[in-house]
Amino acid sequence: MSDNRRDFIKKSIAIAAASAGGIGAAIGGPVDPELKDRLESVLMQQPHKKSTIRIIMQPNARMAASGMTFYRQMGIEDVTVWIDPPNDNAEYYIGTKKHFAEAGINVYCMGNSAVHNQDKIVLNLPGRDEKIEEYKKHLRNLGKAGVTYTTYAHMGNGIWDSPRETTRGGAGARSFNQYGPNHGRWAKSTFYPPLSHGREYTEEELWENWKYFIRQVAPVAEENNVRIGIHPDDPPIPKLAGVPRIFSHFERYKKALDIANSPNVGLCLCVGSWMEGGDTVGKTPVEMIEYFGAQKKIFKIHFRNIEMPIPHFIETFVDSGYTNMYTIMKALKKVNFDGVLFPDHVPDMAGGNAWPFSVGYVKALRDRVEAEALV
Amino acid sequence: MKENRRDFIRKTGVSVAAVSVGGIGSAVAATGKPVPKKNVSGNALQELALASKIRIAVQSPNDVNATQTSFYKQMGLNHVVLSPDESKANADYYDERKKYYTEASLQVYGINIPSLLNDEKIILNLPGREERIERYKQHLRDLGKAGITYTTYSHSANGVWNSANATTRATAVAKSLNMDGEKAGQWGDKKYTGPLSNGREYTEKEMWDNFEHFIRAVAPVAEENHVRIGILPDDPPVPKLAGVPRLFSSFEGYKRGLELAKSPNVGICLSVGTWIEGGNKMGKDVLGMIDYFGPQKKLFKVRVSNVDQPLPHYTATFVDNGYADIYKVMKALKKINFDGVLIAENIPQMITAGVGGGRNANGAYDPGLAWTIGYVKCLRDRVEEEAAIEQPMITKKSNKS
User: Fold this and answer.
1) pLDDT digits (tens, 9 = 90+) for A70-86
2) Tell me, what DSSP letter sits at residue A289?
3) Distance CA B72, CA B374 (A)
4) Per-residue pLDDT for A234 more than 60?
5) How far apart are CA A229 and CA B211, in angstroms?
6) B356 and A284 in contact by Cβ < 8 A?
7) ipTM of the complex as predicted
8) Chain B within 8 Å of A371 (Cβ-Cβ)?
9) pTM for the complete prediction?
10) Which of B284, B278, B249 lies closest to B177, judged by CA?
11) What is the DSSP annotation of B319-384?
């Protein structure tokens, strides 16, 4: 009932625009004719069409119905899920999509940890072609399930961390100290300096391997209507433990997309990773959005904040880092970003987790930039 | 160590920002330097949030523990309000609580005694009234001794009226009232039903006389003890319910009530959710109330929630999901330089299975509270930043008085 009313309120925007009087009308506020004589229109909430900037969560692929209800209560209607072997078959992809759809939740993205950040692909190790075939199968499975997006990362030795530190209120948070103890990790593998893979790799090799991979998978992505967003290397340092990290600079992203040469290959812009780089990554997150967003190359945003850039960063709450996250949201609206935004990597929160706090904050940012766009 | 680091970032963040040209930085008002007409850096925004006079608080439970206080601090909050049982409420207890929270870096903005702040003996002049007024005065003195400067009062003799809970977004359970359906009033353990909740029809004159008797007795004590009393609107804000007039249910009612009190220490605890239940029947809407009473320094506390529509039948909902634009409320508060606390109330019950925490556990980790505080804090941060951008020349404390 309340939902019907809300639709009704939205539809009556046009009426409001024509109504005389209240400030609400002047700035596009809705006046439901049924409510009009019971309201002072000045207070009315800005109506906005369903935003194309959709906030998502990342649940387990078989999340219980109660969890999905909780997401919808927070105002979330899209998710991203990971699928891990041995569940990486078409039936499971299709079943996952259906599992969420039944609760009114759209699966925007599916990942497969077995074909993401694979050193066999990134470093041309034995078994590379089998892995690439596995990736193609992943894309075909997505196609069969009607999932139109997946994130890919091209880190040869994973995501790097130092021991967790604390941020606001003593909350535990991920950290990385370039000059302290640190290590890389992906799935069940751990990587250590000085040489994670036995020797120094050249940037040239990495580019060759990228080209070999993306030129094979991009056509399959196109055939299956799947878009691939490349996640930045985290942290975006040019080389770690002997392995170059090519998604660590604006110019290198540009080059990689040129090599891919496919409308289906773009960015999963993790603004948190990008901020880690500070002034070493060529462009700020806002500038990245302005550049690649205008080209419709940004498919997904990871939305988090950090206290300061490398060499030593600590993740923190969205409202507590060195970046004003409003500027990111505003930039996304400016380029008419039409994808999902994931408030990932929240710090620990005493007694529970920090996702609800983060989602509330982020949703308000989203609602504000939408309302501002109406004025 | 962590705090040192944070201080360091603040200092460097601000000074670096002042000279930076790129996307990261700009100056903050607190430095005394002009703020460019563009967005501030994240560090500067934290400065603005810390310096904000619109302080977001949590209604903290009596048996709070370190996990809960950490939860508040992690959300970036620095203030609590407390509602102890009357049997416990005395100066020593207030003092002990204040020390407890101070150790957790939290300030106790106010303490209410639920069983005393809305007492029908006082409101309807029933036997025992004078003893209850004396008890209220004692409460004010106890607050004064503990250095706690705020408490809430309500003049709704037959409590807060609700119908059965209803559902809002994604079946979240929420407070609801249908004036034309089954409904009852409640305060503490006491329930009230129509047609006459308190045995007879009361006149508005009696109600005003009783309010005057009470407030004239307590206001001087509040002043002596540096305690401010914020009067809550009647919920629902209708002129009369079950035979009992509800004085604080319109702009005119508040105006008269505050004139009768005639004390700088008597003002308003403005419940946005209650006020918007009234729609356009209130004389002034929430924004009008803020614009009128804010500059008179009569707004001491604001409680934020939303409803789907005004009476006769409303259901409370999430702050982003009702008919009122809470951003506009926040903007109005900033405009009048509101310098009290703001709490979130009437949050619909979120499903918590698999999420952790309790269900609306009143200050314990609770996803609904965390989500709502996140949303509201963002609105607060937005209006602070907008003000810093709009008034770039805000500088160091002026020498003018």
Assistant:
1) 999 999 999 999 999 99
2) I
3) 11
4) yes
5) 65
6) no
7) 0.90
8) yes
9) 0.90
10) B278
11) TTSSSB-HHHHHHHHHHTT--SEEEE--PPBPP-TTT-S-SS-TTSS-HHHHHHHHHHHHHHHHHH
